[in-house]
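--- STAGE predict ---
source: upstream dedup step, 1 unique chain passed
mode: sequence only
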Amino acid sequence: MAQKPSIPKGTRDFGPQEMARRNYIFDTIRDVYSLYGFQQIETPAMENLSTLMGKYGEEGDKLLFKILNSGDFLRGIDLSSLAEGATGHLAAQLCEKGLRYDLTVPFARYVVQHREELTLPFRRYQIQPVWRADRPQKGRYREFYQCDADVVGSDSLLNEVELMQIVDEVFRRLGIRVCIKINNRKILSGIAEIIGQAERIVDITVAIDKLDKIGLDAVNEELRQAGLDDKAIEALQPIIRLEGTNDEKLATMRRVLAASETGQKGIQEVEYVFRTLAATQLDAQLELDLTLARGLNYYTGCIFEVKALDVQIGSITGGGRYDNLTGIFGMPGLSGVGISFGADRIYDVLNQLELYPEAVTTATQMLFINFGPAELAYCLPFVARARRDGIRCEIYPDAAKMKKQMQYANQKQIPYVVLAGESEMAAKSFTLKNMQTGEQAMLTPDELIARVQA
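--- STAGE serialize ---
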């Protein structure tokens, strides 16, 4: 017997009901983005590796899916690299392209490539899949969608404020209670300065960003392996474990970072965001989290992460300010800030909490029973009218037994079935059956439309 086909680990199929739910998420995010004046773009699934490499840190580079060159990809390749274990060098020769890791770096490439066509500040959103060669686990996939919004060409912290308002509005509409965690890479840089480890800021942020995943002891060991001495690690402990209200944390850090100009600037930026958001009456909780590091190298200012309060799962939204990203592509000095909704994790949260509106998963609202050619001819004009009125209709394609057609309606959870036989045709009416209650009534076309739309 032939082996049953399968899909790669870390990927998923989505059937009709699942796609209806996913589109509910995408449509909600898209609607909110549009409210704030963001415009949609798309970029290719694959980019040149030269575009992607070196933008995500050493760990991120390892998670890039690389695409073998087409044709005879071994022609002219020195395979001695393989014998010497230099697989990275060999991969660079074999692969010129890779699947995008996120939407931010391709967006930076897009801005530089299309600079003359853009009006700054440029507010774009993008909803497309990304790929990471990660180890699959609950809430972590190798192929998943991101729903990004970015503003480039403006240094104003008002952009950070509006992005947090967008986050709050999206999750308010979806019914998910969330906590928005905020930090600032300048604060983290200031911390590295005062413990005498400014040159190890990347190692420090990568390690403490894993606190929720691996725990404090493992983070400390990773810091030790990165070259921090015990004195520096000990100095980090009160900061990593800092507790209290947001105001209390900021007051403490203002004292701790008194000698760091960079750290003080980060505190001022975070204070502005908290102070301005306080006047907007968000539903979401706001928390200053000094362990939030967003390990990606390109963040330079405020950084964000969103956690669902009622489900144990990783972050469902993240983002931050990046001042240098387009400089990598030859356009220095263009600042940007953005967020990314993790649609797949949001999907899992909505499933666990059963928060989808019933209308989202109702594809067909009415099924017309097919009794034969004459009845079919009678129904077809009304089916067309119902569709023009926005009612999602099907007419069973075959004049099959009534039981089979009703089973079809039940299996697809179609709420209404319409019957038209001799008596209905004579009365120029239709019989509408409610499949949930079993009630049925003979109605005129106008009455039927009104009943279903009610």
